[in-house]
Amino acid sequence: MSKIVDAKVIVTGPGRNYVTLKLTTADGVVGWGDATLNGRELAVASYLRDHVCPLLLGRDANRIEDTWQYLYKGAYWRRGPVTMTSIAAVDIALWDILGKVAGLPVYQLLGGAARDGVLAYCHATGEDIPALLDDVAAHLDEGYLAVRAQASVPGVDKAYGVPPKGQFYEPASSAVPEESRWDTESYLRHAPEVLGAVRERFGFGFHLLHDVHHRLTPIEAGRLGRDLEPHRMFWMEDPTPAEDQSAFRRIREHTTTPIAVGEVFNSIWDCQQLITERLIDYIRASVSHAGGITHLRRIFSLAELYGVRTGSHGAGDLSPVSLAAALHVDLAVPNLGIQEYMGHTPETAEVFRPSYSLDSGYLHPGEAPGLGVEVDEEAAAKFPYNPRYLPVNRRRDGAIHDW
Ligand code: GCO
Ligand code: MG
User: Fold this and answer.
1) ipTM score of the complex?
2) How far does residue 315's CA lie from ligand 1's centre (Å)?
3) Which domains does the chain have, with CATH numbers?
4) CA dist., res. 72 & res. 298, Å (int)
5) Ligand 1 pocket, 255 CB below 6 A?
């Protein structure tokens, strides 16, 4: 029995906002969990501080599954991003503690490495096609074997995935959501041209990915998928709003372009139909939004049964604690597809010191016991929280569209 004696929530804004949970056991072992929910950070901080931390004190840190069930079933009100991010943070911190106590990296506790490294995909972006091609070239030179390509869309200001010149991509950029205009027809005409230009210039010797960011209807997504078939995509991500699971059947009827979805999912119930009916090829749930290592593993096991591979969300709005947790799972599961990796800002690196590494396009979580991430609380205190919201998308007529 190793009792939890302290539970503390740290809110910090090193370049962007992160919420981190710190659990300490009676033996002085510290575990870290990521509780960041982009744009709704303080709701999770409060859920943890006000409703979860008091319940953790005195509990046995080793009883990870029991704690998960206690928080999930015990709340009565199930699922939802705030609840599931909070449970995830506790779960991730408990796995970190278990690894540190055992003196083993978490992936060893999950059954050991099922591969030598985790295939990573990076983000390439450009204001126009030539700029995108330069960025793809730079990433291929860095050794990446898989590249996500996004470019501006004619007539659409502030296209998803494209940063202002020379800046790191960070969509949650202002205290009130920025508004952008969306034009589906323009996007549908332009996207195949963009991805075709990438293949024309660099060939087929690397994996090419694209994120639609939930903006199409099923039939539009079917058309896009078909137009992208000559470019042999690794996947087309989030083609339609993710909560409508049966909609994916319509996309499937029209295209062989592989489909990935899941970054907004919180539980296995959000993707049960998608997986069991084989409507997708990759499940992209994130460890810190979908109930932590315990629950993500359950989702990935269900996916394995149906031939669906994994592709964990790894955007910069998940902290390095989250990325480390995802990498331990990635290394151990049999059905890994790929891991998103966009890195973090230098300010973030002042607060979080991970031991994962990138080599020749593959990530590895490292051999440090637990998750292998150190958090510098003094550095965290130097970066105050700044409210930042994701943008809102409007169509030409002003109606709200999916962002
Ligand atoms: C991705 C995602 C992110 C999200 C972000 C929202 O594929 O990386 O789409 O860019 O927009 O995580 O907070
Ligand atoms: Mg995405």
Assistant:
1) 0.98
2) 6
3) 4-105 (3.30.390.10), 109-368 (3.20.20.120)
4) 14
5) no
Q: Which residues contact 116 (CB under 8 A, 6 or more apart)?
A: 362, 364
Name the residue among 185, 134, 135, 199 with its Cα closest to residue 155: 185
Ligand at minimal distance from the CA of 239 is: 2
Pairing of strands 30-34, 18-25: antiparallel
Cα-based angle 173, 317, 388 (whole degrees, multiple of 5): 30
Distance 313 CA to ligand 2 centre (A): 7
Burial of 203 (0-12, 13-18, 19+ CB in 10 A): exposed
Interatomic CA distance for residues 375 and 20, integer angstroms: 9
What ligand is nearest to the CA atom of residue 316? Answer: 1
Which among 134, 133, 105 is positioned nearest to 332, based on CA atoms? 105
How do residues 108-150 score in pLDDT, each as one tens digit? 999 999 999 999 999 999 999 999 999 999 999 999 999 999 9
Phi, psi of 5 (to 5 degrees): -110, -15
Question: Could you list the active site residues?
Answer: 160, 213
With the C-alpha atoms ordered 95, 316, 136, 354, is the resulting torsion angle positive or negative? Answer: negative
Name the residue with the closest Cα to ligand 1, atom 10: 315
CA atoms within 13 A on the CB side of 250: 15
**Strand (E) positions, 41-117?**
none
pTM of structure: 0.97
Verify whether ligand 1 is closer than 6 Å to residue 263 (CB atom).
yes
Measured CA to CA, the distance from residue 154 to residue 231 in angstroms comes to 21
**Using one digit for the tens of pLDDT, what is the confidence trace for 219-273?**
999 999 999 999 999 999 999 999 999 999 999 999 999 999 999 999 999 999 9
What 8-state DSSP symbol labels residue 345? -
Ligand 2 center–CA 255 separation, angstroms: 20
